[in-house]
């Protein structure tokens, strides 16, 4: 991964933490700084549920122009695992050109 891609990935992760998770989901008990890149977002990790998963997907479209409806459900679960995987999906979609 090039240095410019690394900076872009770090910037995406920052936006995902603050705008997509904290602001959009109105999380009050945690700050963006407390969310690690590899923290599991659903279930035992951050504790998000299926309604919040939907909000994350809608937010990805609104904030980054990333559509996820063409991704199979099992694969999408892997992409929504944590901040790192969400950011990598966003970067991949932008690198490949929007579907």
TrEMBL record:
Domain Carrier: 11-94
Pfam families associated with the record: PP-binding (PF00550)
Superkingdom of source: Bacteria
Designated name of the protein: Carrier domain-containing protein
């Amino acid at each position: 991964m090039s240095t410019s891609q690394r900076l872009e990935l770090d910037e995406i992760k920052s936006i995902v933490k603050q705008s997509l998770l904290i602001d959009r989901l109105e999380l009050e008990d945690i700050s963006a700084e407390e969310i690690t890149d590899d923290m599991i977002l659903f279930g035992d990790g951050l504790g998000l549920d299926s309604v919040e998963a939907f909000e994350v997907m809608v937010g990805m479209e609104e904030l980054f122009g990333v559509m996820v409806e063409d991704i199979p459900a099992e694969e999408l679960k892997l992409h929504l695992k944590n901040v790192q995987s969400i950011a990598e999906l966003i970067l991949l979609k932008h690198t490949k050109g929007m579907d």
